[in-house]
Design a protein that fits this description.
The protein has 300 residues and is of the alpha/beta class. The longest helix has 18 residues.
């Protein structure tokens, strides 16, 4: 399994496999925990993909025996749980405190770190994965007084570090649609915006990054139905052919976030995204638009 697949994602996939096996033999969590001589809370953590769980082989084999797993299922889950013990690559975001990376956002970052495709619509600001340091500092400062100077510094550092995701081998494909006002709003002044727009034009040349602009002339659009920015994440498949994680729609607020993975919820955001794609400028027109704005900020 590729090192690009995050540990959190792997654990949730393992948890779903164990839950499916338990349900197949008709056991509740309480009954299975009693048979395993473990607490129900422990079994719940396993099925939730909690990173505190240590998958000892003897415990895994006991679960598989009680769940009457087939030889193929046993081989797969022994291999997957061994991956959690084999010194897997520690994702960069584990190095940061909750002050720099709020707990509700940490889950998103672990998912983003594991995604195959990231689709983002931005109504108010440039996406974090594409921000310059100067731009990131400006937007992290609002609202005034919400975070301290030290926290601002740490959060900007986290945001810059997140961008390594796009440069690694087998990087995810990032597909972004940015609302025109985002690019016209002079965040930090002309110099900051000229640098930011130049960065967008440069990054857009990468094979795994697509940036498109939603112009004023688009009129009513899918982002309005979504009531603001959103992200859709799609994940790679496991060796079984099943996705390691169901597709996810993510909607963020100032103090929290929603993680939506019901098919009808994700489907609604896919419809909004499809509408935005139909109304946005194409890649080449978007590049020309951003270059023109950059020149305007530079002259100003």
């Amino acid at each position: 399994m590729s090192d690009t697949i995050g540990s959190a994602l792997l654990r949730r996939y393992i948890g779903r496999r164990f839950a499916a096996l338990r349900e197949r033999v008709g056991l509740t969590q309480e009954q299975a925990a009693k048979a395993l001589e473990r607490g129900r809370a422990t079994l719940g953590r396993i099925e939730d993909g909690d990173d505190r769980v240590r998958f000892r082989e003897i415990d895994v084999r006991a679960m598989l025996a009680i769940y009457r797993a087939t030889d193929q299922e046993t081989e797969l889950l022994l291999a997957l749980t061994a991956e959690t013990r084999n010194g897997r690559r520690k994702s960069w975001w584990h190095d940061y405190t909750e002050t720099a990376l709020p707990g509700w956002f940490g889950l998103y970052v672990s998912l983003e770190d594991s995604a195959e495709t990231i689709r983002q619509y931005l109504a108010e600001l440039v996406p974090g994965l594409l921000q310059t340091e100067a731009y990131a500092e400006q937007v992290t400062r609002v609202p005034a007084g919400y975070v301290t100077e030290d926290e601002i510094e740490r959060r900007v550092r986290v945001r810059m570090e997140r961008q390594s995701l796009l440069r690694r081998p087998r990087a995810p494909h990032l597909n972004v649609i940015i609302n025109e006002p985002v690019l016209r709003r002079p965040v930090g002044g002309g110099d900051v915006m000229a640098e930011q727009l130049g960065h967008l034009v440069e990054v857009q040349q990468r094979a795994n990054v697509e940036i498109r602009v939603l112009p004023f002339s688009a009129g009513v659009h899918g982002g309005m139905a979504a009531c603001g920015p959103f992200t859709i994440l799609d994940f790679p498949a496991a060796s079984t052919g099943d996705p390691l994680e169901p597709p996810l729609a993510y909607v963020e607020s100032l103090t929290g976030a929603m993680y939506l993975n019901k098919s009808e919820e994700v489907g609604a955001y896919r419809l909004a995204w499809r509408d935005l794609e139909e109304r946005a400028l194409d890649v080449e027109a978007s590049r020309a638009f951003m270059k023109e704005l950059q020149e305007g900020y530079t002259r100003a």
